[in-house]
Design brief:
The chain is of the alpha/beta class. It contains 12 helices and 9 strands. It folds into 2 domains: about 110 residues, ATPase, nucleotide binding domain (Nucleotidyltransferase, domain 5, 2-Layer Sandwich), CATH 3.30.420; about 160 residues, ATPase, nucleotide binding domain (Nucleotidyltransferase, domain 5), CATH 3.30.420. Helix 6 crosses helix 9. This is ATPase.
């Protein structure tokens, strides 16, 4: 078994990451591609990103050495219940030269397992989306949010980006100059922080830019909100505080008061040194 390799993938709304590792923990290769969440991007595109990430991770590895794989995925249940989506992932797996089985797990359970070996506890994830879950015997028990960008994911990266754009549009509607965060968002979306002589022209251009893209891409604006909050921007600070309150409320739905089991934080907005992690 010394030559055995396993593959793990972290599939999110904005990126797909792959890792090939031996049973002794030696990292053999890594890969990174675009968002691979089939709920956000569709199964075909998601499977394509999966294949790219796998190809990079296995560039120097004989696929025959790989004996098992695990995929952590937001909305795993929806993929498993969709024959066409599962077939697309199966095809991407085989296209990478892999013939071993793989298992699909929800991203919340993967995040929990990465933070503690305790069989019971709670995980709170905030990345592109947001979800909280109670874990029992290393299985998800009660779950809160994780409803996707249209119906939930409050406090997530998508939520931050969406709210930042809404604040900017409100300022333009009111005829007030955008604040620092607003100008950062305007520059990112429109290519310039300048407001047209007729502000409504800028509003219309922003709406067209946003609606031409997949909605989940608003999550790419979250770092602007984080940076603005760090710089002391009032709107950025307020949005981070609101996001923190939403995430705390989500966790409280499934974590009893006084629960002494581990609470694991996951997702890019909560695992780094970010103001949102501090608030939560």
């Amino acid at each position: 078994m010394s030559g055995t390799v396993v593959v793990g993938l972290d599939v999110g709304g904005t990126s797909t990451r792959a890792l090939a590792v031996t049973l002794d923990g030696e990292r053999l290769g890594t890969g990174r591609a675009g968002g691979g969440n089939p709920t956000s991007h569709g199964a075909t595109r998601a499977a394509g990103e999966l294949r790219i990430a796998l190809g990079q991770a296995l560039a120097g590895v004989d696929p025959a050495r790989v004996r098992a794989g695990a995929i952590g995925l937001a909305g795993a249940g929806r993929l498993l219940a969709d024959p066409a989506g599962r077939a697309a992932f199966d095809d991407a797996w085989r296209a990478a030269g892999l013939r071993c089985p793989y298992a699909v797990y929800g991203d919340a359970l993967v995040a929990y397992a990465s933070g503690t070996a305790s069989p019971a506890g709670t995980v709170l994830v905030a990345g592109t989306g947001a979800i909280a879950a109670q874990v029992r015997e290393l299985r998800l028990d009660r779950v809160a949010d994780g409803h996707g960008w249209l119906l939930g994911d409050t406090g997530s990266g998508f939520w931050l980006g969406h709210q930042a754009v809404r604040r900017l549009l409100a300022a333009l509607d009111a005829g007030t100059d955008p604040d620092n965060l607003g100008r950062l968002v305007l520059a990112e979306l429109a290519g310039s922080a300048e407001v047209a002589t007729r502000p409504r022209d800028t509003v219309d251009a922003l709406i067209q830019t946003v609606t031409r893209r997949p909605p989940v891409e608003l999550a790419r604006l979250a770092p602007l909100v984080v940076d603005a909050a760090i710089a002391g921007d009032p709107t950025g600070t307020a949005l981070i505080a609101e996001a923190g309150a939403h995430l705390a409320a989500t966790a409280s739905r499934i974590r009893p008061a006084g629960d002494a089991t581990p609470l694991v934080l996951g997702g890019g907005l909560l695992t780094g040194d970010t103001p949102l992690a501090t608030v939560v």
